[in-house]
Amino acid sequence: MAGDSKSTENPLNLASLPVELLNIIFSKLNPCYLQDTVRLVCKRFAEILSDDAFWKLCFRRHFGVRSKKYKYPLLQPFGFHEGFTIEKRFRCGDQISWREITSRLNKRDILWGKAEKVVSRFSSIPHSSEVDAVRILPNHGICVTGGRDKMMCLWNLDFKKNPLLLAKEKSHNGWVWDIAFCQQDEFFSCGWDNTIKGWNLSNQLSCFKVMRTSSPPMCMDVVPGLIAAGLLTQEISMYDPRIAILHEIHRYNGHSRTVTSLKIVENKIYSVSEDKTISIYDTRNLAVIDKKKLKLSCETAFPRKMAVYRDLVYVGDSKGCFSVYHMQSDYDSPLVCLKVGNERPINSIIPSLEGVIVGTSDAGAKMIIPSVPMQVVQQFNGDKSEITSMDYHKNYLVVTTASSHRTVQFYTPVPDLYNV
Q1: Rounded Cα distance, 73 and 371, in Å
Q2: From 16-25, 86-95, 191-200, 251-260, the region with the lowest mean pLDDT
Q3: Which residue from 326, 352, 353, 356 is spatially nearest to 338, judged by alpha carbons?
Q4: Residues 49-92: tens digit of each pLDDT
Q5: Which of 79, 131, 176, 372 might form a disulfide with 71, Cβ 3.0–4.6 angstroms?
């Protein structure tokens, strides 16, 4: 009885175990489970699981089987080298959250790693021509597409509901070429009718603003208070959607040929062009502060699509390759250059911490890890047609194509895998 009383007074408590034993136990658990559940149990678990060294070792355990075959050049600036050497200090760049990258890589593998666990839906009506633009509208559960039939459509991302919500004919008097989300219920579209239009989701997709461009806009980006549009000429036009002026507030020449892609990052506009350069423009001083020649996959390639994630610039070229550069580099030596397509352009790049989704004109859409050699997590073949645009948000991937079927393709993991 005395022994029973003693055991009752001092029950076994997992949180009271030595940290060495807890590290061994935690090392056997799924990184997602550690991040989403175990870390929230108590302060001691949270403290143990906030140690970057633990998560570096966790990364090695779960992805180390690939170490002899693959290199991770994008992680090397953060103290992660060949052979998974653990360093106390980072060599350069901003510190990376190893807990976040390990748990998100693990979750991505669980959600997207098996083709049979990914459900898809294809829609073609009411678009009657190629669909060149798509944008998911966060917090609304919908996306908007624009095509060469001058039409824009709203689609429901919920697979249990009717996909088409609204079709607006003659939204532009020319091809709808790009769409950018702004804020709340507003987004903007640009077309070959030399206009940029602002749309409100309320009142059956009403147009609240029309801005004129001097030539057809080939790309654009929007942040609160600023719209930047790259034109068929070498110019980039800037607009303020908050004021009544319908023409640009400023225009500059950042390149010598057509602007193919641009991105607003804080107070700078990054743009690439057919002249094979990247231009960096300061919106406060209204001046080009840097312009550099890009080192691409071959001499005949030119930049086709650009994306920016954290301090990395991703550039897809016209020959099916994409290169990754550090923002502060000279752009003459990419951190990594990978062949994704065959010989046709990359038309879409969506980078994230756990990898990159790339859409090409001849190899479909691929979810990849930018290692050397490249690792393909999932390939979305669809109808094996040219990918014109993609967008991704909260485990929903929407792909538009230039196929004869004019499909809008929706992909998502099966619902029972979300809580991993």
Answers
A1: 7
A2: 86-95
A3: 356
A4: 988 888 888 887 877 655 567 777 776 655 554 444 444 333 33
A5: 372
In the numeric block, the tokens 């073609």 are attached to: 124
Residue 180 near residue 220 (C-beta atoms within 8 A): yes
What pTM, to 2 d.p., does this model score? 0.87
Terminal Cα-to-Cα distance of the chain (whole angstroms): 44
In sequence order, which residues have a C-beta less than 8 Å from that of residue 20 and are 6 or more positions away? none
Q: Which two tokens stand for residue 111?
A: 């959600």
**Which two structure tokens, joined as six digits, stand for 50?**
């906030």
Contact 179, 132 (CB under 8 A): no
Of 215, 287, 316, 314, residue with least CA distance to 257: 215
Q: In what order do the strands lie in the sheet with 131-137?
A: 131-137, 142-147, 152-156, 164-168
For residues 278 and 303, the answer to whether their CB atoms sit within 8 Å is yes
Sign of the four-CA dihedral 412, 415, 416, 417: positive
**342 CB burial (10 A radius; 0-12, 13-18, 19+):** exposed
Residue 202: CB atoms within 10 A of its CB come to 11
Report how far Cα 403 is from the mean position of its chain's Cα atoms: 23
Alpha-carbon gap, residue 153 to 408, rounded angstroms: 10
